[in-house]
């Protein structure tokens, strides 16, 4: 079913909207939540929470594209659950992604102010728009979808070492860009 038809079902408050959303994007949502959360039950609960959030927010929201909308909700739900479940524990895959990204986003002090975080987010998006498509895909797959290096390499048909080098260079360019913008 097309995204617009699913959104129309939400706008009509038809419960079939959840069924169709799950059918089309359920595997993507579970995969995304699974990269952050370790327990399958937590993943399923997170995905169900994402569906409920979509139900509550459509309308008034009219998401386009629907895939990005439900992925953002799912990721935010997974991050909330991750932080509540792992206040003192470490999830090596997700923590490793955060530590890598933090190298170029934080310079000695944590970003505490939401306004500052939004400004950095806007500049990261601008930066991503300026780099090549392949680097952008690698960066987003690693730091947004928390994919493993080997998984990204396999998907792109390159070596893991190639991905590591590209990520290092993109993080370095991002760090320099943020310093030029006086955000670091």
Count of domain modules: 2
Identify the CATH architecture of the largest domain: Orthogonal Bundle
The shape is: globular
What does the largest sheet look like? none
How would you classify the helix and strand content by structural class?
A: mainly alpha
Q: Estimate the strand proportion.
A: under 5%
Q: Span from first to last CA?
A: 45 Å
Annotation, overall tally of beta strands: 0
Give me the oligomer status.
single chain
Rounded to the nearest angstrom, the radius of gyration is: 18 Å
Instruction: Tell me the number of helical segments per DSSP (H or I, 4 or more residues long).
Output: 9
Structure description:
By secondary structure, the protein is an all-alpha fold. It has 2 domains: 3-85, Rna Polymerase Sigma Factor, Chain: A (Orthogonal Bundle), CATH 1.10.1740.10; 92-180, Winged helix-like DNA-binding domain superfamily/Winged helix DNA-binding domain (Arc Repressor Mutant, subunit A). 76% of the residues lie in helices and 0% in strands. It contains 9 helices and no strands. The protein has helices at residues 3-11, 16-36, 40-57, 66-85, 92-105, 114-130, 133-143, 149-156, 160-180. The relative contact order is 0.10.
């Amino acid at each position: 079913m097309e995204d617009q038809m699913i959104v129309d079902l939400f706008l009509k408050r038809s419960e079939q909207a959840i069924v169709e959303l799950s059918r089309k994007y359920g595997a993507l949502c579970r995969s995304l939540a699974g990269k952050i959360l370790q327990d399958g039950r937590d993943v399923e609960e997170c995905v169900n929470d994402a569906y409920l959030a979509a139900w509550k927010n459509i309308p008034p929201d009219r998401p386009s594209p629907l895939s990005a909308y439900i992925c953002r909700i799912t990721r935010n739900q997974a991050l909330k659950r991750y932080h509540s479940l792992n206040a003192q524990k470490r999830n090596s895959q997700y923590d490793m992604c955060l530590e890598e990204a933090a190298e170029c986003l934080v310079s000695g002090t944590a970003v505490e102010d939401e306004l500052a975080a939004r400004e950095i987010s806007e500049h990261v998006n601008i930066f991503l728009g300026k780099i090549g498509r392949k680097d952008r895909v690698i960066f987003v797959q690693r730091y947004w979808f928390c994919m493993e290096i080997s998984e990204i390499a396999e998907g792109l048909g390159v070596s893991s070492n190639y991905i590591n080098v590209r990520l290092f260079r993109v993080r370095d360019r991002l760090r320099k860009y943020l310093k030029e913008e006086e955000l670091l």
